[in-house]
Amino acid sequence: MSDPRQFGRKGAPALGVIPRGETVASYESYESAQAAISSLAHTDFPVKEISIVGSDLKSVERVTGRLSYGRAAGAGAVSGAWLGLFLGLVLVIFNPETNLMLLGAAVLMGAAFGMLFGIVSYSVTRKRQEYTSATLVVATRYDLIVGGELANRARNLLERGPEPDAG
Description:
Elements: E1 22-27, H1 30-41, E2 50-66, H2 69-94, H3 100-125, E3 131-146, H4 148-160
Antiparallel strand pairs: 1-3, 2-3
């Protein structure tokens, strides 16, 4: 008997549960695993029975540049201007008689407060981090997991490779 927690609505596999089945193939990149599923889809394999499981997770931080007062002020001004634009547009939408000069003033005030906030927050964290970066989590291996009764069929189809186009 299968575990009822393993399935979500309408019999679809639940996202929070590691799928059960056999590993039919392993790949070094997510794109390669997707390509394998695409090739199985072209053979009318029931792809809803396949899961991609990433293993050996690693955190990768890419340094994107040096952080300075100028960059902190510029980034703060841009984000503050967006916030000012949003609030100004909300004001114009709910009160159509509002002068559009008020919208410009909201953008400028937002940019000024954003710049100030950017400089202050950089001043506080300056000693800890003097660079900007982007962090992501990547897997070193991506396994295709297929339920036991379909695993051999999937393995055979993947070993055979893509079908040549007729025509």
